[in-house]
């Protein structure tokens, strides 16, 4: 930027010397040089503070690593590199055989659990009947026992008959207690419920849901609308549910975020809603307009996290920058190929010293046209 101003001033000075036929001597050259230094210093001071510029800017985008939820061999890959997909579209499939077997097994266990509940209901009904019969027998033998107890004293009932009625009563009492215990156990087994469902059935249902979930994980789908990047996955490869070993990288459509990083000296002049201009090397000769949506609330280098090490100020290198989020119009890039992740140069214009903003805008356009001149370090082949 400084070089552009110097070159512009030098060109103007040369034209002035030629057009106005200014004599070239030590006085005029020194005056012109000092004037250039003064003008350059004033412009830079006013522009850099009131209309800040940065070359540290990038169009960021969010990605999601696609990780398999289950372990298995990949049987089919339905997407290709850089293919755009909709939310829910199938990306790839894993061999479902073992997971389908697990689902079938859990379904059988659920059916068995439901059958057992029916058996428990029937057993409860039988125990209720058995207890009623035992209680009736107990009542009858008790009446006989109590009657013979009164009659044995008068000799109306023999001692042996009384002993027999007493044994019958005690036996019926024991049978009634056993029947009551069995009834209580049957009631506990039958009424063991969770949210109105028997525990055996609930356990089998939960196991079936888990098995069905694993089976569903054999079909991996797109989380949102977006693009699949760098598809290296092929059928026959082993998919492993490890976060550190993703199988694909997925870029979301609505995840792009343009961020420009400014020096802290510009903190007082960058405000939300301010006009911004952006120059992409990917689009030479074009200046894109935007607005500041968000000014970073903190400088990253100043953050502290709990650790077992004391903070060493000497380990913090650099001053750090202020991140500024810039939004563009919805159709700002229509007709242009600006790949996500592209770098850029940004100028933000404040409401102060507005005449100086014209110089900044001119320089931004000169920077944009300068992007037509570039080299990738190519060399001509050696001739022998």
UniProtKB/TrEMBL annotation:
InterPro entries: MdtA-like_BSH, MFP. Pfam families: BSH_RND. Residues 103-137 form a coiled coil. The chain crosses the membrane at residues 26-46. The keyword Transmembrane helix applies. The keyword Transport does not apply. Keywords: Coiled coil, Membrane, Transmembrane, Transmembrane helix. Signal peptide: none annotated. It comes from the Bacteria. Residues 66-236 form the Multidrug resistance protein MdtA-like barrel-sandwich hybrid domain. This is HlyD family secretion protein.
């Amino acid at each position: 930027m400084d070089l552009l101003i110097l070159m512009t001033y030098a060109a103007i000075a040369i034209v002035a010397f030629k057009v106005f036929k200014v004599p070239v001597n030590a006085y005029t050259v020194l005056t012109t040089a000092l004037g250039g230094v003064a003008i350059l210093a004033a412009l830079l001071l006013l522009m850099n503070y009131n209309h800040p510029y940065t070359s540290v800017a990038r169009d960021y985008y969010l990605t999601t690593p696609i990780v398999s939820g289950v372990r298995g061999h990949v049987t089919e890959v339905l997407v290709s590199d850089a293919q755009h997909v909709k939310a829910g579209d199938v990306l790839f499939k894993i061999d479902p055989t073992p997971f389908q077997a697990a689902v079938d097994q859990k379904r059988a266990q659920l059916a068995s659990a439901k059958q057992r509940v029916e058996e428990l209901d029937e057993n409860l009904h039988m125990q209720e009947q058995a207890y009623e019969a035992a209680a009736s027998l107990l009542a009858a033998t008790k009446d006989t026992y109590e009657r013979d107890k009164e009659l044995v004293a008068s000799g109306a009932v023999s001692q042996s008959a009384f002993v027999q009625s007493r044994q019958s009563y005690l036996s019926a009492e024991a049978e009634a207690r056993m029947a009551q215990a069995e009834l209580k156990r049957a009631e506990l087994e039958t009424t063991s419920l969770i949210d109105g469902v028997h525990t055996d059935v609930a356990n089998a249902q939960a196991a079936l849901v888990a098995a069905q979930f694993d089976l569903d994980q054999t079909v991996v789908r797109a989380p949102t609308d977006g693009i699949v990047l760098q598809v290296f996955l092929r059928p026959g490869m082993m998919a492993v549910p490890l976060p550190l070993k993703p199988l694909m990288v997925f870029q979301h459509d609505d995840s792009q975020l343009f961020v420009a990083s400014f020096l802290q000296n510009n903190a007082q002049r960058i405000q939300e809603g301010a006009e911004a201009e952006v120059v992409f090397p990917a689009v030479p000769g074009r200046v894109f307009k935007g607005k500041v949506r968000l000014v970073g609330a903190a400088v990253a280098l100043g953050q502290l996290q709990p650790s077992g090490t004391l903070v060493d100020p000497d380990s913090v290198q650099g001053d750090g920058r202020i991140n500024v989020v810039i939004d563009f119009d919805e159709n700002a890039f229509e007709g242009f190929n600006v790949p996500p992740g592209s770098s850029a140069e940004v100028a933000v214009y404040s409401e102060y010293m507005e005449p100086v903003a014209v110089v900044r805008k001119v320089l931004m356009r000169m920077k944009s046209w300068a992007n037509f001149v570039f080299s990738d370090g190519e060399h001509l082949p050696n001739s022998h």
